[in-house]
Amino acid sequence: MQMQMAENVCHAIHTFMLTDLSGSLTDGPVNYKYKTKCTWLIEGYPNAVLRLRFNHFATECSWDHMYVYDGDSIYAPLIAVFSGLVVPEFRGNETVPEVVTTSGYALLHFFSDAAYNLTGFNIAYSINSCPNNCSGRGRCSTANSVSGRVYCECEEYWKGEACNIPYCRDNCGSPDHGYCDLTGEKLCVCNDSWQGPDCSLSVPSTEAFWVLPSIKPSAQSLGRASHQALVHSGLIYNLESSTWDVVPVGNGPLYRYGHSLALYQDDIYMFGGKLEAKSANVTDEMWVFNIPRRTWSPQKPAPPPPYALEGHTAHVVELADGEPVMLVFFGYSPIYSYINKVQEYNIRSNSWQVVSAGGAVVQGGYGHSSVYDEASGCVFVHGGYKALSNNKYGLVDHLYRYHVHTKTWMILGESGLARYLHSAVLLSGTLLVFGGNTHNDTSLSNGAKCFSADFMAYDIGYPSRTIDQMARGCFHLSTGTEKWSDEKEGALREEKRDYINS
C-alpha cells in the first residue's frame, strides 16, 4: 500500500499517512467526488490517546460513509461510522462529540458511491491532548497520571471528562428546593417537593426534562443502532438502583438486530431479527429471558411456524377471554417482503397463528414504532419504511390503530414527519415519538438528516370518557379532536374527524 505524506486532501482514490501531533484531514474545498475511496492513517505512539474532532461533516445519508478504526488497519476495532449531516446545530456551544482512540493510532476510511455528493468533511486530530480543550472551563494537567496521559481539572460547578457538564446551577435553589452534593457525583439533591437537574421543577411537573445516568458499565459498552435493547453484551441496567449487573450469556441467543422484545410477568420474549453470524440472516427464532434467574431459553413452538421477520414490533396483551398472547406487527420477510399481517403467539399453548384482521387496508413496513393502550385495548402504529406504488419504497408518516378485541384496523391522522427506526411510548393518553431516520432523498439533498432529534406528541384523545367506556372500545363518542404536536418546533396540527364506534 503506497502512502502519501505531503497531502491529506481526498481527491479520488488515495491513502495518506499523518505523523504530526496535531493536524486535520478533509475532502477538499468543494464537494467531494463521486466514487471516492480515501484512507488516512494517523500515527502517534503506542497507547497514546488520539482525539478526532468533526468540525464539519455532510455526506449522502446511508450511502457515503466515514469509518474510524482504533488501530493501524481495518482489522483493528471499528469504533465509529459517520454518514449524513453531522454538524453542530442550534446552540452555538453545541458540538459533535469527539471520537477517541487509545491505541496511539487511528485509521479513517471514506467511501462514496455514484449518486449525489455533498460538501464533505473537515476533521481535526490531536495526540495526547485534553478533550475539547476542557471546554474553556478547566485546565489540562498531567498531575497524578501514571500513564502520562493528560486530563482536565475542572472549575467549580463543572464536571465531566471535558468539563462540559454543569452541576448545582443556582445552588440548587438552596435551602428551599435542595442542596448541592460536592462530595459524591457533584449534583443537586432535591427536597421531596422539587425535581430536575437544578431542583427548579415542582413535583408533579408539567415540564419534561432529560436525565443522563452517570453510572456506566465497568466493561466496554459497544454502540448500537437501536435504542430498544434491555440486555446487551452480558449486561443489564437496573432502573431503580441505577446500576449495571452482569448477566450470564452461556447458551444464549446469537447477536442480532431488528428483533422485538415483549415483557410478560417475569419473562422477556425476543422474536425474530437479523442474525450477525449466519448467512441465512433473518430468523423466526423465539427466545425467552427469565429476569429472576437471568437465563435464556429457546422456545420450540408447535407448527405452523411464524414468518421470519426483522424490523417488526410486538406487544403482549390479554384477549377478551383472558388468554395472554404476543401480537407481532408487520416487519420485513426475505420471502414475502414487507408484510401487513398481525401474527399472534399464544403463550400458554406455545403456538402461532396469523390474525384475520378487518377494517381499513393498511400497508406493512419495517422499522415502525408501536404502543399498546391497555385501557382501550388498542395498538397505535406509526411510521416505518414501506413499499409504495410503482415499485417504489420510502418513509411514511402514517398512523394506524389496531383494536385487539375486534381485530380491526383504522387509519388516523398523519404526523407530517416521515421516519423509521424511531421509538415511541404512551404516557397519560399521549403517544410520544422520538428520533429515527428521516432521510428520504434519492438524487438531490434536501437537507434531511440521517437521524432526527425530533420529539413529537400525539393526543390519542379520550374527551369526557370514563374508564368503563374506554375498556369497552377505542372510541365511543361521535366527535372529538386528534392532535399531532412537534415538540421541537412548537408547531401544532389539529385534525377534526369522526370517531367510529367499535
CATH level-two architecture of the largest domain: 6 Propeller
Query: Quick one: CATH superfamily of the largest domain?
Result: Kelch-type beta propeller
Tell me the helix content: under 10%
Q: In CATH terms, what is the fold-level topology of the largest domain? A: Neuraminidase
Q: How many angstroms separate the termini?
A: 69 Å
Give the overall shape, derived from the CA principal axes.
globular
Quote the average pLDDT. Answer: 81
Q: Which CATH top level class of the largest domain fits?
A: Mainly Beta
> Mind telling me the C-alpha Rg?
26 Å
Strand segment tally: 45
Oligomer: single chain
Low-pLDDT segments: 1-6, 89-93, 463-481, 488-502
Number of helices: 1
| Domain tally | 2
Report on this model:
The protein is mainly β and 502 residues long. It folds into two domains: 13-129, Sandwich (Jelly Rolls); 235-496, Kelch-type beta propeller (Neuraminidase, 6 Propeller), CATH 2.120.10.80. A hairpin with a 2-residue loop joins strand 41 (423-427) and strand 42 (430-434). The longest helix is centred in the C-terminal third of the chain and has 6 residues, at 467-472. The model is unreliable at 1-6, 89-93, 463-481 and 488-502 (pLDDT under 50).
